[in-house]
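Exercise 7b. C-alpha cells:
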C-alpha cells in the first residue's frame, strides 16, 4: 500500500495542481487536502484505481486543526503560503504557521516533508547557473524573509524544500500579468539586455512536488526547480508583448532601456523591483529533479507559454 499524503494550500495556483495530480496518481493510498474554506475545496469523489481523497478544514494558525490534519499521514506536501501580505500575516502563515505544521507532523510520525519554497530567498541576484548550496539566504522582502524562515523549520526537521524562481501557466496572476502591466506603462518595447532566467511551467512544478513526495531518491535540503534551458529575458518580454493591447493608430517609440524605464515608471508600485529582476541573471541550475526524481521539465518556455496565451488573454481581458 502506498503512502497517505497530506497537501496544504490545495486550492492555490500550485497546490491545486499538486492535489489534482495526487488524486489521479495510482501510488498514494489516500490524499488529504487541508483547506481554509470548505466552499473552496475541490471535488473529492473517488475513482477506481485512484487514492481515496478527503478534504479537511483548517488553518496553519490553528494547532488543533493541524494535529487532526496530520493524523495517520506518511507524507506532507506543504504548498500553503501568504504572498504579498503584510508583515504580521506573512509571519503568522509563512514562519509561525509552517513551524506549527512541521512540529505537528514530526510529533505524528510523518516520515517525509516536502515544502514549496522560492528562489527569492536568495535576494535579487545576479545569479548565473547557481547550484544548490552555493548561495546564502538574503531575502529582500517581507514575503521572502518569512518564507525563508519557514524553509528553516522544514530543513531542521530533515525535510525537502523545492525552490522555483518564476512559475507560469494557467492560474498565474503574478509573473506574466505583472510583466504585461509593466510593459503597458511604457511608450515602447523594453530592452533589458541579455539576462537569463529560470522558469518552470506549473504542471511540471506540480509533478516535481509529487515526485519528491513519492520517490525513494529524494534527498533532504533544497532543490532548485527550473527548466534546464534558462530563458533569455528577450523571450520573456516577447511573450508579454504578445498579450499587450496597444492602439494600432499610435506610433511606436524606439525600445526603452532599463535606465529610462526606471525614470518613466518611478511612480508605479514595484516597477523598480521588476526591472531589477529582469535586468539581472536569475538562473538556478539543478539537474536532480529531472535525473533523480523521474520527472520531466515540460516544453521549453517559448513552446510552453504559447500554449497558455489564450488563458492569459482571457484573464487580462476579464
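Sequence design result:
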Amino acid at each position: 500500500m502506498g503512502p497517505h499524503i497530506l497537501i496544504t494550500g490545495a486550492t492555490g495556483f500550485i497546490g491545486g495542481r499538486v492535489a489534482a495530480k495526487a488524486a489521479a496518481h495510482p501510488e498514494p493510498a489516500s490524499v488529504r487536502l487541508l483547506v481554509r474554506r470548505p466552499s473552496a475545496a475541490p471535488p473529492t469523489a473517488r475513482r477506481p484505481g485512484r487514492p481515496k481523497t478527503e478534504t479537511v478544514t483548517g488553518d496553519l494558525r490553528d494547532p488543533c486543526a493541524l494535529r487532526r490534519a496530520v493524523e495517520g499521514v506518511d507524507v506532507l506536501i506543504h504548498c500553503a503560503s501568504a504572498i504579498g501580505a503584510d508583515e504580521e500575516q506573512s509571519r503568522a502563515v509563512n514562519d509561525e504557521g509552517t513551524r506549527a505544521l512541521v512540529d505537528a507532523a514530526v510529533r505524528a510520525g510523518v516520515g517525509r516533508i516536502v515544502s514549496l519554497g522560492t528562489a527569492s530567498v536568495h535576494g535579487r541576484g545576479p545569479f548565473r547557473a547557481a547550484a544548490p548550496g552555493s548561495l546564502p539566504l538574503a531575502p529582500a522582502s517581507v514575503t521572502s524573509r518569512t518564507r525563508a524562515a519557514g524553509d528553516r523549520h522544514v530543513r531542521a526537521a530533515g525535510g525537502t524544500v523545492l525552490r522555483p524562481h518564476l512559475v507560469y501557466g494557467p492560474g498565474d496572476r503574478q509573473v506574466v500579468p505583472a510583466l504585461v502591466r509593466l510593459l503597458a506603462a511604457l511608450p515602447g518595447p523594453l530592452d533589458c539586455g541579455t539576462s537569463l532566467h529560470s522558469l518552470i511551467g506549473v504542471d511540471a512544478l506540480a509533478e516535481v512536488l509529487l515526485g519528491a513526495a513519492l520517490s525513494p531518491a529524494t534527498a533532504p535540503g533544497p532543490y532548485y526547480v527550473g527548466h534546464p534551458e534558462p530563458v533569455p529575458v528577450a523571450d520573456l518580454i516577447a511573450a508579454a508583448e504578445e498579450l499587450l493591447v496597444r492602439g494600432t493608430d499610435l506610433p511606436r517609440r524606439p525600445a526603452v532601456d532599463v535606465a529610462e524605464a526606471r525614470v518613466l515608471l518611478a511612480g508605479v508600485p514595484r516597477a523598480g523591483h521588476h526591472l531589477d529582476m529582469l535586468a539581472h541573471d536569475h538562473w538556478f541550475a539543478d539537474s536532480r529533479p529531472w535525473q533523480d526524481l523521474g520527472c520531466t521539465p515540460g516544453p521549453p518556455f517559448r513552446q510552453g507559454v504559447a500554449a497558455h496565451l489564450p488563458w492569459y488573454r482571457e484573464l487580462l481581458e476579464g
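Instructor comment: The CA atoms of residues 76 and 113 lie 5 Å apart. The mean pLDDT is 93.
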